[in-house]
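Hey all, quick one. A colleague (J.T.) asked me to put the fe (ii) ion job into the tracker so the inputs and the structure tokens live in one place instead of scattered across chat threads. No bug as far as I know, just bookkeeping. Sequence used:
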Amino acid sequence: MKISIKDLVESVKEKLAFPKIAMRILRLFEEDDISVYQLAKIVSLDPILAAYILKVANSAFYNFSGKVKTLSDAITLIGFEEVKKIVIMVSAKNAFKVSDEMDRILWEHSLAVAVASSVINQQTRITDDGVAYIAGLLHDIGKIVFKKNEDMEYAPLLNEAYYEGKQAKELEEERYGYNHADVGGYLLQEWNFDQEIIDAVSFHHLNFTLKKTSDFLKKAALVNVADFVVNNYLAIGKAQKIDDFGALFELGAAKVIGFNQTDLALMIEDIQTKFEALREAMKEESE
Ligand SMILES: [Fe+2]
Ligand SMILES: [Fe+2]
């Protein structure tokens, strides 16, 4: 069955709605003089979101364990930018809603790539931390779109990619004529995300070479490197780990962003620890 990207995104829009309250909060961030009080007030309209913000702020991810009692504490201690990340994370968790094993893998992969993008960005200084983090978190959201439309019969394709170490992107292009990066970029446009996030997501599977080094491609290259690290060295998103650290430095995207971290083992450990803290904090009580 051939269906256009537009019709595909349209067909799952209801199931994938970005919470209205989150949209309002994100709009609020665009204003210059937003106050702690204003933000706390609007967040408190959504008790689930408020609870997550407190939980994540008190988690091992930050070093305030137990000290964050109110939303105002959370905002003043971890800061506006971190609160913004949590708002998007809670909204994304909603979209990624786990109903099978592959959903769980996709969600954990997304969290890990968000953390990895942010960690690698600290070294390479490609963009703002928030952009790196959010682009990493949402880079594979197109896979969720494919999966939510049952007519696409996407689950076997995902399994093939996961267990046989194939590229989902290639299997998708063969089968549908476009890939999850195209679909994800389209969805984020519909959701009115910033252009730099849309670009980073849309191009994260480009064949990167040093000749293509414009700024918007660098952000996509950053996500590509983070994705590679998470898939191959942490095996979150791929069934099989590899041990060869050299492979990372051969990667076109790594050259594009000037990646030269020498202590890879330490960096991988850092990503793993932060990812685990976040995964714990983002769990629902019933999970
Ligand atoms: Fe991807
Ligand atoms: Fe990915």
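Adding what we noticed when we looked at it: The first helix runs from residue 5 to 12. The chain has a mean pLDDT of 92.
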